[in-house]
Known about the structure:
- 2 copies of one chain form a homodimer.
- Chain A is mainly α.
- The first copy, chain A, folds into 2 domains: 1-140, Farnesyl Diphosphate Synthase; 188-306 and 316-325, Farnesyl Diphosphate Synthase.
- Helix content of chain A is 74%, strand content 1%.
- Chain A is built from 16 helices and 2 strands.
- The first copy, chain A, has helices at 4-17, 25-35, 42-52, 62-82, 94-97, 100-118, 127-152, 159-184, 189-216, 219-222, 228-231, 237-245, 248-259, 265-278, 281-301, 307-322; strands at 87-88, 91-92.
- Chain A has a two-stranded antiparallel sheet with strand order 1-2.
- In chain A, a hairpin with a 2-residue loop joins strand 1 (87-88) and strand 2.
- In chain A, helix 9 (189-216) packs antiparallel against helix 15 (281-301).
- The longest helix of chain A has 28 residues, at 189-216.
- Chains A and B meet through helix 4, helix 6 and helix 7 of A and helix 4, helix 6 and helix 7 of B.
Amino acid sequence: xxxxxxxxTLFDDYLSQHFFQQAPSELYEPVxxxxxxxxxxxxxxxxxxxxxxxxxxxxxxxxxxxAVEIFHNFSLVHDDIMDEAPLRRGxxxxxxxxxxxxxxxxxxxxLIYAYEYLLKTENPSIIxxxxxxFNRFAIEVCEGQQLDMNFxxxxxxxxxxxxxxxxxxxxxxxxxxxxLGxxxxxxSREDAAxxxxxxxxxxxxxxxxxxxxxxFGDPEKVGKKPGGDIVQNKKTYxxxxxxxxxxxxxxxxxxxxxxxxxxxxxxxxxxxTSILKDLNIPTIVEDVKTDFMQKAYAHxxxxxxxxxxxxxxxxxxxxxxxxxx
Amino acid sequence: xxxxxxxxTLFDDYLSQHFFQQAPSELYEPVxxxxxxxxxxxxxxxxxxxxxxxxxxxxxxxxxxxAVEIFHNFSLVHDDIMDEAPLRRGxxxxxxxxxxxxxxxxxxxxLIYAYEYLLKTENPSIIxxxxxxFNRFAIEVCEGQQLDMNFxxxxxxxxxxxxxxxxxxxxxxxxxxxxLGxxxxxxSREDAAxxxxxxxxxxxxxxxxxxxxxxFGDPEKVGKKPGGDIVQNKKTYxxxxxxxxxxxxxxxxxxxxxxxxxxxxxxxxxxxTSILKDLNIPTIVEDVKTDFMQKAYAHxxxxxxxxxxxxxxxxxxxxxxxxxx
Lengths: 325, 325
């Protein structure tokens, strides 16, 4: 069996053999740039692990794993333009390193190449299914990004709307990667659907953990200072829940901080964090995370497939939901 | 047989039944906006006509025709952002009507839906082939757009480089639409390849005609004032050829006009047009167009399929190369 580390190595080897050498270099160099910025290759690793549940030969799933990684990075390139983000993984974003037009066009060609790699999957009988699964989550990622942008202008975002947004923007792709991997491994429709649901619920927990760490994470472990979301007035689960349960005075104070000009950031982070703590938000989020992980486990329990791989995949999902790697 | 008009009607009916009703409306309304801006639906019409060469039932090709039209409009939305174009078909471009982020994201989701419609083609045995053909020209369109942007910064663009650029940016999609239509109609590989080559050569002629009309067209027929390319210092076939064949003095004058600040536009248009005329550029371009149409006809002559549809398609190609519709 390939464990997570072995799968990461396998994938990184494939990736380094499939950099974009085509002309014009102005189009393809930025593609290699973003693909080489690294990251944990989580989505392709999940896809390959999912194949391994049903088939020891996971080489056949490498092109689809690459398709998913290319798609993920395409969405980062375009999202970073929309969010005007200067940095990604500590390095300049594509549109900062090059320019916005390059970001748009190199992103576009990445999306097309994702389909190109998807088609390299050898089994012709599943091509239509895997392109359909890919389309579905790709559309969901766009819809999630649109909702995320809508929320910036919207003062009354509900918890249900927020969960829907992160399900589309983040969790759908995680579930979709697992579903693709399962089908390529020869899983039944039922097993593939359970893996998709497992990934979708774990993916929501993963995003909630991300929200939590942004405010309450250990800077040394997380690799960045806490409070970024607070400074940007992002309506994360933490803030939406706090606005929902706070007494009128606290609610008013929170809203005041969120509409204040961006001076006094240190004070703002300190005060908002303190309000969230007083409202017991970290515990509430932990509980909700647990609920989603329970749903994920319930689907997981119904999946057939190699027990030893199941154990490895479960450990990976736990790490994911706790971001301890 | 469906003639061009009947095919346009058939396609417009399909399109109006397949507007994007999904949520969030912020994402999909701009998609409907650009799709409703009109245009002659040339690419889907060519696809459907190509199917009709081999099969009287062209309904089966409607989803792929829509895929091609969605893709074409996606590329317009993103290109208009890159080119900072305020107008498209006389109406505000998507990023002017909405904003740049909307243009990026709605364009992205259009590209994904193009694949979604492609998959609706009923014959499962050709799905992989048609997605592969689609990928190839979609990649070429991106590469062509990149070359076009590169040329803005490049003073020594050759005729060969320019032809390559328009082949990628414009002609590949026309050839690809015909190839897709042929395969869906049940054509042999050989016939499909000849149709692709026919479309590619006719597409180059089509773009050369576009260049010609921009400077020498009758404003009443073309629907815009002549000289747009000259004002923008676009390195079209006309200018590249003129720089190649002009004597040193004329060449210097042309280059001087092209680097001048954008005052004196009327004088610039008049003088550059006059230089091009003196150098016999319109005749040269007509000759080159004829060469490409001859290549197109040579491929066309080898295609099997309904003679009456062949005649209709050929008339359409002639209109295309002369832009007389």
